[in-house]
């Protein structure tokens, strides 16, 4: 899994943040920190989803876990309103999000 590539793409989608990090010469340290956090949260979500949905397809769980971990990371990025103090998604909230997502597709 290329977590740094995913985080870099996320930063590219947020030019204000990217430009600020560039000015502060913090792109690489930030990229590395966020990539490690994304990996850690992805692994944690995979464990939680595997326990909550035993017997489910491993690839599906990994995909859903990455989606949830990425959503958490996106929510932590600075935007127009401060969101950095948000709690990580609960398992119940994550399951509701997955159900909504799978019902649409």
Proportion in β-strands:
under 5%
Tell me the radius of gyration: 15 Å
The ordered string of helix (H) and strand (E) elements is HHHHH
Distance between the termini: 24 Å
Could you explain the architecture of this structure?
The chain has one domain. It is about 75% helix and about 0% strand. The protein has helices spanning about 5-10, 15-25, 25-50, 60-75, 90-105. Residues about 80-85 and about 100-105 have low confidence and may be disordered.
Give descriptors for this structure.
105 residues, mainly alpha, elongated, disordered C terminus
Strands, helices and their partners?
Elements: H1 3-12, H2 15-23, H3 27-52, H4 58-76, H5 91-104
Helix pairs in contact: 1-3, 3-4
Summarize the structure.
With 105 residues, the protein is mainly alpha-helical.
């Amino acid at each position: 899994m290329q977590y740094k590539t995913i985080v870099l793409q996320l930063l590219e989608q947020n030019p204000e943040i990217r430009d600020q990090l560039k000015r502060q010469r913090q792109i690489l340290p930030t990229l590395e920190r966020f990539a490690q956090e994304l990996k850690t949260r992805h692994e944690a979500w995979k464990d939680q989803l595997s326990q909550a949905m035993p017997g489910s397809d491993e690839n599906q769980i990994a995909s859903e876990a990455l989606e949830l971990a990425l959503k958490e990371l996106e929510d932590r990025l600075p935007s127009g309103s401060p969101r950095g103090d948000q709690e990580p998604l609960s398992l119940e909230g994550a399951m509701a999000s997955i159900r909504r997502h799978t019902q649409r597709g």
